[in-house]
Write a structure and sequence with these properties.
Strands 1-2-10-7-8-9 form a six-stranded mixed beta sheet, with helices on both faces. Strands 5-4-3-6 form a four-stranded parallel beta sheet. It starts with 16 loop residues before the first helix and ends with a helix. Helix 9 links the parallel strand 7 and strand 8. It is built from 15 helices and ten strands. By secondary structure, the protein is an alpha/beta fold. Bound molecules: ligand AN7. The site of ligand AN7 has 21 residues, from helix 4, helix 9 and helix 13.
């Protein structure tokens, strides 16, 4: 009889990034091995983007498939595990939305109290719904994300509450596993790595992951790192803090990135760049991904594809290149953006002929 474990349908033994990449993470015997099934996200080809750019291959890393719908779960699972290991009973973050959704979910699962500070009026509905559903205490700050992060640092300095923003090094450690998965899947690093940049934790994390694998000779050469910011919130492009960041991509509406130095190091050490894309370019890429590739992402995620599409005219030769774009969050996070598009919804009666006539 066949060994059931040998069947192709057998689930992978390891679930979650702590189990899968334990050897690369700062674990101790006391670190709880927790998981909501984060990581091991799909890497799918996008042929329309290959045609448009002349690249040999473009893959989309669907981080939207993580348990709470964004890449934040990779870092949050480790940050929460470490908070528990350190004896904390509460966690806190400032957030443009996705970090708060992720913190709320892992805290709920582990029985921790969770506080989230969000910029009032500028977080997407789906993310707010998640924080509410998981029972977070939500404080809507009458200011920007940057103001909320300053407050979050001050509060956690004064109280025994773990700060789970990406200034917490465990967040970066967890998020670097995305780079491992890409190299494990492709057999080597891509030539170019494209991603959106807000607070700059994720670009710092991916660069760390590629460098860790390089040190172990698991890849030939790390990719050139290309980060993309929204034009109205592009401090890493101008080199200046943006006091009043503005963009439709609320996830990356950040004027003073906490991991500024990490982003600059990733850019310069890899021979990459950090560039700006307009809100119109973001929305164009958002629609393109949904309609041509069947990938529904949030606007911030589309920024990296918007940026990729600009690279040839900005003088970056993509012919023959292998490219990976990080689709950081789900389109369901921000339904208002999709619903604001001109919709072709036809009212029909309960009548076969009328429905047939309306098929066009
Ligand atoms: C979908 O949730 O900052 O450059 O507080 O939600 O690591 O900040 C979210 C950021 C890209 C930028 N794409 O990543 C938060 C938050 C999505 C995001 C980014 C975010 P970083």
């Amino acid at each position: 009889m066949a060994d059931p474990d040998a069947l192709p349908s057998a689930p992978p033994a390891a679930s979650g990034i702590i189990a899968r990449y334990a050897a690369y993470l700062p674990l101790t015997p006391d670190t709880p091995r927790i998981t909501l099934g984060e990581g091991s996200t799909p890497l799918v080809r996008a042929e329309s983007l290959e045609r448009l750019t002349g690249a040999a291959s473009v893959h989309l890393k669907l981080e939207s498939c993580n348990p709470t719908g964004s890449f934040k779960d990779r870092g949050m699972v480790l940050a929460v595990a470490k908070a528990i290991e350190d004896g904390h009973q509460a966690v806190l973050c400032a957030s443009t939305g996705n970090t708060s959704a992720s913190a709320a979910a892992y805290a709920a699962r582990m029985g921790l109290k969770v506080y989230v500070l969000v910029p009032r009026g500028s977080i997407a509905q789906g993310k707010l719904a998640q924080a509410i559903a998981h029972g977070a205490r939500i404080l809507a700050v009458k200011g920007s994300f940057d103001d909320a992060l300053t407050l979050a640092r001050e509060i956690t300095d004064r109280h025994p509450i773990a700060l789970v923003n990406s200034v917490n090094p465990h967040r970066i450690q967890g998020q670097k596993t995305g780079a491992f998965e890409i190299v494990d899947a492709l057999g080597d690093a891509p030539d170019l790595h494209c991603m959106p940049v807000g607070n700059a934790g994720n670009i710092t994390a991916y660069w760390m992951g590629y460098r860790d694998y390089q040190a172990e000779e698991r890849l030939t050469r790390p990719p050139r790192m290309f980060g993309f910011q929204a034009a109205g919130a592009a401090p890493l492009v101008s080199g200046q803090i943006v006091e009043h960041p503005e963009t439709i991509a609320t996830a990356i509406r950040i004027g003073k990135p906490a991991s500024w130095a990490g982003a600059v190091a990733a850019r310069d050490q890899s021979g990459g760049d950090i560039q700006a894309v307009s809100d119109d370019q973001i929305l164009h890429a958002y629609r393109h991904l949904a309609r041509e590739e069947g990938v529904f992402c949030e606007p911030a995620s589309a920024a990296c594809v918007a940026g990729l599409l600009q690279l040839p005219q900005r003088g970056v030769d993509l012919s023959g290149a292998r490219i990976v774009c990080i689709i950081t969050g789900s389109g369901l996070k921000d339904p208002d953006i999709a619903l604001s598009a001109e919709a072709d919804i036809v009212d029909v009666p309960v009548d076969l002929a009328a429905v047939e006539a309306a098929l066009d």
